[in-house]
Specification:
Radius of gyration: 23 Å
Shape: globular
Number of helices: 16
Number of domains: 2
CATH architecture of the largest domain: Alpha-Beta Barrel
Structural class: alpha/beta
Low-confidence stretches: 445-487
Largest sheet: 8 strands, mixed
CATH superfamily of the largest domain: Metal-dependent hydrolases
CATH class of the largest domain: Alpha Beta
CATH topology of the largest domain: TIM Barrel
Bound molecules: zinc ion
Number of strands: 17
Distance between the termini: 61 Å
Helix content: 25-40%
Length: 487
């Protein structure tokens, strides 16, 4: 049953406007919005006598109360995928839809009460957003793009010409301005909140022209929608700013001039360090190929230089995680991005919290309505063990998220959110070539041991034994020396 009044007492307030947790206080939510903050008896007096018995009163016992986190880069249709083919081809639309709906509760469980989906397959995001808004699916507030609009030179056109960009994939091919306009019009007709463009995969070049970007942005805006882009390089980030894009994903490499434009336009930057960092730091544990891990590490190192300059220039950073890969499963890692923003961009804990709350609000269409603890704001709240201003990492352990409220309603979890859905992997026969020489050298070949299936099987068969630990250590060591030999 829905409660009209929510009273949280003995809580210490933390949000992006405060540099330390408040003294213990109380907060009252009327229907879905914060009514007032202050002394618990004064707040109770605001509730009409007839409603007194119906107040949902939660005692915080000195815990921290924060606005719910906002993840501006969360792909609900990816389904914890292990391969690109799984995202684009293998999983059926029926399975993908049910799985996306199921995974929403895992996101909420992590204290993420709003998400933005910058690209996904079919119009699953639109259906999911509507079902959540109507209370048919339990999930965070959501806004969504459709499939990424790409050119033959952009991210999401990765298959050979004979396969192209299939309808089931996360991309939609548009090589001419006419095709781009047609694509935007159809996506808007089908209910997206914003348009997502896919520029070059790693920032190698600008794959849409400046004029094309401008035309797409103008049309989207005319139709009342927003527009964003996957842009890793300076040229495409700069062109997107010139074209008036509403926020930008990644921008790993930027000249001072582009940074200056970013800062003066107040356009939010959503770095999305998490996928790179999880691959670089923990990929060896789950069979991520050595080359990919090393590439992510190098990208992070170069990115840190850009982001520190951007931070010093006053660029607005927002939380995004690319959750939806098996490397970044739903509900596991969202808050790690805050720690990474501190490490790779030099944000303070307070700035990181602002990145995860107010700064990301634009991407979910709720700028000025969520993200701070003030009267009039929506009652999206999390009750936290530990103080994130002292140690931002407390938010990463789900056990520290004591309670989650969306629009003043407490979310109840039944344990099902701890389950994961089975994968539909691509068909991998091996991850390197079996030459005569490889066979002669036997298991000492690092490349053979890079096969994730072998690692998994061994982990299952001999888990928790000291031999397993030694073996895992050896695998990692061989993997590293193999990588060094490669470069
Ligand atoms: Zn993404």
């Amino acid at each position: 049953m829905q409660n009209q009044w929510l009273l949280l007492s003995d809580v210490r307030l933390v949000d992006g406007t405060r540099n330390k947790a408040s003294e213990p206080t109380a907060l009252l939510v009327e229907r879905d919005r914060i009514r007032d903050i202050g002394n618990v008896d004064d707040l109770r007096a605001l509730v009409p006598r007839a409603d007194q018995e119906t107040i949902l009163h939660v005692e915080g016992r000195g815990r921290v109360l924060m606005p719910g986190l906002i993840d501006a880069h969360c792909h609900m249709t990816y389904g914890d995928s292990m391969t690109q083919e799984e995202q684009d081809i293998y999983t059926s639309v029926e399975s993908r839809t049910l799985r996306a709906a199921f995974n929403c509760r895992r996101v909420l469980r992590a204290g993420v009460t709003s998400i933005s989906q910058p690209g996904g397959s079919w119009y699953i995001g639109v259906a999911l957003r509507n079902a959540i808004a109507k209370g048919m699916v339990l999930g965070p507030r959501m806004r969504t793009a459709g499939r990424y609009i790409t050119t033959s030179n952009g991210l999401t056109d990765w298959y050979p010409e004979v396969v192209g960009v299939p309808d089931s994939s996360i991309g939609s091919l548009a090589n001419t301005p006419a095709e781009m306009v047609d694509n935007v019009r159809r996506q808007v007709k089908n209910g997206v909140d914003f348009i997502k463009l896919a520029d070059s995969p790693m920032g190698e070049y600008q794959s849409f022209t400046g004029d094309e970007m401008k035309q797409i942005a103008d049309l989207a805006h005319q139709l009342g929608k927003q527009v964003t882009i996957h842009a890793r390089g300076s040229a495409e980030a700069g062109a997107a700013l010139d074209a008036g894009f509403d926020w930008i994903m990644h921008a790993n490499f930027m000249t001072d001039e582009v940074i200056e434009h970013f800062a003066s336009s107040k356009t939010p930057l959503v770095p999305t360090l998490l996928l790179l960092a999880n691959a670089a730091d923990f990929g060896a544990l789950v069979g991520t190929p050595v080359g990919f891990r090393d590439g992510c590490r190098r990208m992070l190192e170069r990115t840190a230089e850009t982001y520190h300059r951007a931070h010093a220039a006053g660029v607005v950073f927002a939380l995004g995680t690319d959750s939806g890969f098996a490397l970044t499963p739903y509900g596991e890692w969202h808050a790690r991005e805050l720690e990474l923003l501190m490490e790779y961009a030099g944000l303070s804990a307070q700035e990181a919290i602002a990145a995860g709350t107010t700064n990301a609000a634009r991407t979910v269409g709720l700028e000025g309505e969520i993200g701070t603890l003030e009267p009039g704001m929506l009652g999206d709240l999390i009750l936290v063990n530990g103080d994130p201003l002292q140690d931002i990492r407390v938010l990463q352990d789900r056990k520290n998220i004591e309670a989650v409220f969306v629009g003043g309603q407490q979310v109840t979890f039944d344990g099902s959110e701890e389950q994961a859905w089975a994968n539909d992997r691509a068909i991998v026969y091996s991850t390197s070539t079996l030459t005569y020489e490889t066979a002669q050298q036997g298991e000492a070949q690092g490349a053979v041991l890079e096969d994730w299936r072998l690692e998994h099987r061994l982990a299952e068969e001999i888990s928790f034994t000291s031999e397993a630990k030694e073996f895992a250590h050896e695998v990692t060591k061989i993997g590293r020396s193999d990588a060094q030999a490669d470069h």
